[in-house]
Amino acid sequence: MSSDTETISSKSTTAASEWRVCLAGEQDDSSIDRFEVRSAQRALALLKTKLGRERLLDLLADEIAAGDAYLRDQVARSAGEEATGTTTLHAHGITAGQFTGWLSQAFAREDVLLAGHPEHYSIHAGGGRVNIVETLGDHICSFYMREWDEAKSPEAPTLPADPNSTYGRRSRMVLEDGTVIGGIANAFTDVEGGFTASLSVTLPASCSPTVIEHHLEHFAVEFHNWILRAASELSARSDI
């Protein structure tokens, strides 16, 4: 019986790996995937707009409380030890200065920030801080980014060393009660035809490596979307 089951399982796996649906004349389903992504983005934008920030936060109150408890526990377990991960993107057709200039203005546009990632539930700037509610690993977390001009404080995360960086910034992530849970550091460097974005996240060392990996994937999605939007908007204004 075990042998028959294994044979059936093997055949099913082989068949599944061969199943595919694509547009006529194309070799894979990447175009259909893009259609789905755009549809999901439109649907989420509509739902977030209709619900509004306060209703979304009320809806996610229990999940946010659980996320806060998880992060406080990781801070206590780590006893000051931290772990950092970095991902690097390569942008074409736009300079680091053009993108960072656009991004600094975009932080006043809540709709643009929310559209950066499907799991941006709320991003709200006020009182000198930016409150971000997003998924971190398996938890929905609400944290605050300290002002970027606080980045030179001794407790700030290490900025990736790159003497050619056109622009770099770093900031600490804190909970509502002031508990420091980690930080982010970004460095943007001009290269031929575009720029590279080095994106780092620092979290308590006791967090599973998959949590850091998840946030690096998060970085890739949001900065991919923001860079393309910046290029599109700047191009429309003939800035690039």
TrEMBL record:
How is this protein named in the record?
Answer: Uncharacterized protein
